[in-house]
Design goal:
six-stranded antiparallel β-sheet, alpha/beta, globular, single chain, 622 residues, seven-stranded parallel β-sheet
Length: 622
């Protein structure tokens, strides 16, 4: 179910208003700090429509972001993933997955080159750093076969070979094709299924998808699109030039090794391996590992941003992680290729791309938006505008109805709008009814001021929720309300680390001034509320104002806890009905109490071990 109608819930979020204004004013670099990860797709979906290139640090994060954007954006907004193809650069043995990835990349790049551009393109820092053939070359790398077309199977087979496809007895994996008389079976590299093209003479009579295992046809299709199984494109001249360049590099490397007195076996291995590549290049055919020679085949190689409109907004999701993950991936690639070169398996034509250089070039060419939980951007990019906000992931209730109902009541009493997005809305409705809770229509949440507070149940599926104290707004999903098996395992592990007398906080909405709290290192204190303090930002930098939680302790001592260290504080729940004793800052009382508890746990564990050992020694016990 599409949830675009919920986006107005963010309308009163100051961070969104500041972000929209900054982008409208044309600032080249904007940094938004503190927005929860789960809230960022909502932010992006709320921005005025324009081309976006979103860069995340991993393929998993990119896929999760796309999944949420598909749910939040209107159906006519197109969101597409561009994965990296680093494995093609490193491996000489192509897997089915490698070919499929290359096919999907080529399908997207051809579309970009032909101006069939998505509204939002999501990729990784590694993919952003890869060099690509120019759009003018890629735009021609597309075959479309339609029912009624006239074509020559011989000419089509030749062109498929030039696209990197291999002829097999059966087309049962991406990047393969097979011929039987007037029938051509083709498994497009980007596709999830193969197609059977049946000709009558030179006319395409039918096109049918078929099962790659049983080879049985499954329905009909009017057309089939075919994209290359490799990213490099070539002409006879470029292949001849590349072959000559590799031959020269190999001769120089052999001479250097002979002069250095290196092992003759390695030199022979180099001549055999690279000699085979030279022969295949001179013959104008594709082979696994040809991507290593991309810069020789395409000296005018470009970056991904060269495929995108000039007004594309470049968005970095956690830029410091994007940078570190990309640097690590390319460093590993460099080690891999250098190790193979030392063993005589390949000859180096060029170093791997410098990830930082690629990221710098991208930020220079496009307006840039940075999302981060903390003040961590890109060292070479000084933002024109720095926006700070507060937010947190939604609390997980793990299927416990009582804490859920209590939390919902607390949120509403604190003036929050609460949207529970669930595929099990009737179940949650029952929990509310059993505990005297009330439900309001979604439209109520859109009303201004206190009239908009309440709990609304929305039928839908999202991966994660969040909390925005500045609105205030709470979004809950089935992941937080009911959890899953992974959450349950994680929760059991966390229980060993949590405080004995506290309830874990994930938002400032969980506590109010006057509540007793437990600090991980300082013990029980009294929460006094939020306060702003000016703190140094670093050597040579002006001081900045930050928000802190103020907690008072015995003797009028006060502790100021940065809001980004909220995980160090829990709300005191205790085990009795009396008022807890407030600890004194700097005393050993809390440390002694936690140490005593740990000793007691160890002693109990020891006693249990002895008991189980004694039971096992009894006759009849297994």
């Amino acid at each position: 179910m599409n949830l675009a109608h919920l986006l107005p819930l963010l309308a009163s979020w100051p961070a969104l208003a500041a972000l929209q204004q900054s982008l409208a004013e044309g600032h080249r670099a904007v940094h938004l700090e503190g927005a929860p990860i789960a809230a960022r797709p909502w932010l992006l979906a709320s921005l005025p429509a324009r081309p976006l290139l979103i860069v995340t640090w991993s393929l998993k994060e990119a896929e999760a972001l796309i999944e949420t954007l598909h749910i939040l954006l209107p159906p006519d907004r197109k969101v597409t993933l561009l994965p990296d193809s680093l494995s093609l650069l490193l491996d000489d043995e192509e897997s089915e997955r490698d070919v499929s990835k290359a096919g999907r990349r080529m399908a997207l790049l051809v579309g970009l080159a032909q101006s069939e551009r998505p509204d939002i393109l999501v990729t990784t820092g590694v993919a952003l750093g890869q060099r690509l053939p120019p759009p003018s070359v890629i735009e021609k790398r597309h075959i479309r076969v339609s029912v009624g077309d006239t074509l020559s199977l011989d000419a089509l087979s030749t062109r498929l070979g030039a696209f990197g496809y291999t002829r097999e007895d059966l087309a049962n994996r991406p990047g393969t094709f097979a011929r039987r008389g007037d029938i051509l079976d083709i498994f497009p590299a980007h596709s999830e299924q193969p197609y059977r093209i049946d000709l009558f003479g030179d006319d395409v009579e039918s096109i049918r998808p078929f099962d790659p295992e049983s080879q049985l046809s499954q329905g009909k299709a009017e057309q089939v699109d075919i994209f290359p199984a490799h990213e490099v494109a070539f002409t006879r001249d470029s292949m001849a030039s590349a072959s000559a360049a590799v031959k020269k590099l190999m001769a120089e490397e052999v001479k250097r090794r002979e002069k250095a007195g290196e092992d003759a076996e390695r030199i022979e291995r180099l001549q055999d391996s690279v000699g085979a590549d030279i022969a295949r290049l001179s013959q104008g055919g594709y082979f696994a590992g040809i991507e290593r020679y991309l810069t020789l085949l395409h000296p005018d190689a470009v970056s991904l941003t060269d495929y995108l409109p000039a007004d594309t907004l470049l968005v970095f999701d956690e830029p410091s992680q994007v940078r570190s993950h990309a640097n690590l991936a390319w460093e590993e690639a460099e080690k891999n290729l250098e190790s193979r070169a030392v063993r005589g398996e390949i000859v180096r034509t060029h170093p791997v791309p410098n990830s930082d250089d690629a990221l710098k070039a991208a930020t220079r060419s496009r307006p840039t938006l940075l999302f981060s939980l903390r003040d961590r951007g890109l060292p070479w990019l000084a933002p024109d505008i720095h926006i700070q906000t507060n937010g947190a992931p939604a609390e997980k209730f793990m299927g416990r109805p009582a804490p859920l109902a209590e939390a919902l009541d607390t949120y509403v009493k604190n003036g929050a709008r609460v949207a529970v997005i669930s595929a099990q809305a009737p179940r949650i409705r029952g929990i509310l009814a059993e505990r005297g809770g009330t439900e309001v229509p979604v439209e109520t949440l859109l009303k201004p001021g206190v009239a908009g507070r309440g709990v609304a149940l929305v039928n839908g599926v999202l991966s994660a929720g969040f909390r925005l104290p500045d609105v205030p707004l709470v979004i809950l999903t089935d992941s937080e309300v009911f959890g899953d098996a992974r959450d349950a395992i994680k929760q059991k592990k966390l229980q060993k680390k949590e405080f004995r007398d506290g309830m874990r906080l994930t938002s400032l909405l969980d506590i109010k001034p006057g509540d007793y709290v437990v600090h991980l290192y300082h013990g029980i204190g009294l929460y006094q509320g939020l306060t702003r303090r000016t703190v140094p930002a670093g050597v040579g930098l002006p001081s900045v104002e930050r928000e802190f939680l103020m907690v008072s302790y015995d003797g009028n001592d006060k502790l100021y806890v940065p809001v980004d260290q909220l995980d160090r504080i829990q709300k005191y729940i205790g085990s009795g009905e009396g008022t807890p004793s407030v600890h004194k800052l700097g005393s050993q009382e809390w440390l002694k109490a936690t140490a005593r508890a740990q000793r007691q746990v160890k002693e109990m564990a020891g006693e249990l071990i002895k008991l189980y050992a004694a039971r096992q020694s009894l006759p009849g016990c297994a």
